[in-house]
Amino acid sequence: MRILLVKTSSLGDVIHNLPVASDLRRQYPDAHIDWCVEESFADIPRLHPAIGEIIPVAIRRWRKSLCHKATWREMGEFRKRLAATTYDIVLDTQGLIKSGLITFFAHGCCCGYAAEVAREPLASYFYDKTFVIPPNAHAVERNRWLSAAVFGYPVDLPLDYGIAPPDLAFPWLQAERHAVLLTATSRDDKLWDEDRWIAVARHLAEQHVTPVLPSGSAIERQRAERIAAATPGAIAAPPLSLRDLAALIGRAGIAIGVDTGLVHLATALNVPTIALYTATDPALTGVHGTRNFRNLGGPGRAPEVREVLAAIAQELR
């Protein structure tokens, strides 16, 4: 059996789809499972041993250069590559028009969410078979239930993200124990105040746990550097690839982060994780694992420092 998973973005959504690959591998040990994903997130499905070919797509980049011939040439090459293999099932767990189009261009029986439960109802018109999955469930479970409905296997399989951190060395990190503080996110209303981060970082340092602060953009790096400068022993990490981040997070004693894809990566790697929510509902998209994870806060209610310190004490114990 050949299966194509279509889950292109964002980072958290891609991580939420990893258990589908684990479920399919348990049900079909000999299946060949490919994955179509945004090029910038391709390192995530590469971590899963069940995934065969990664088919990168560059919708985010193409949107910015639609007037260029090179972009249309790349899009044509992508369609050829997508159509080069005939699949038994093409499964879109994203439910967006863009993912529906990708599913439609692939060769195979296209399956996805029914219009009444898809994130973008028009996506359902690209599928050969559609399924009604409860929209009020957590994103991880919605993905898994959709796959179970398509393939006809039980929905009560144990949750397994199926990934392990890469074995990479970081010469700049000599600490015996470190915590990863994920302070950056895609929206300002999801941020947690810097003074609260400093209080948490100082607490960790007092417990002989080195706070490490990754960052991406220049603004994120400036924030990380300010927090590190206010905390003796803290480290503002150098620029890291997604694979590097998986290795760094996977070896941490604890990860603490706002609503960002990397906090879901920490949970997927079975690292004790504390997720901080200020604008979104963790019931639907909070960190979701098998052990050692906490979702604190919610829309309009940022977690207090004392809540976070109490959770840290329990997790480090």
Your description of this structure?
The protein has 317 residues and is of the alpha/beta class. The protein folds into two domains: 2-151, Glycogen Phosphorylase B (Rossmann fold), CATH 3.40.50; 178-316, Rossmann fold. The protein contains 13 helices and twelve strands. It has helices at residues 11-16, 18-27, 43-46, 59-63, 69-83, 97-105, 139-151, 194-206, 218-229, 242-250, 261-268, 282-285, 305-316, and strands at 2-6, 32-38, 51-57, 86-92, 107-113, 129-131, 178-182, 210-213, 235-236, 254-258, 273-277, 293-297. The protein has a six-stranded parallel sheet, with helices on both faces. It has a six-stranded parallel sheet with strand order 9-8-7-10-11-12, with helices on both faces. Strand 4 (86-92), helix 6 (97-105) and strand 5 form a beta-alpha-beta unit. Helix 2 (18-27) packs parallel to helix 7 and helix 8 (194-206) crosses helix 9. It is globular. The mean pLDDT is 96.
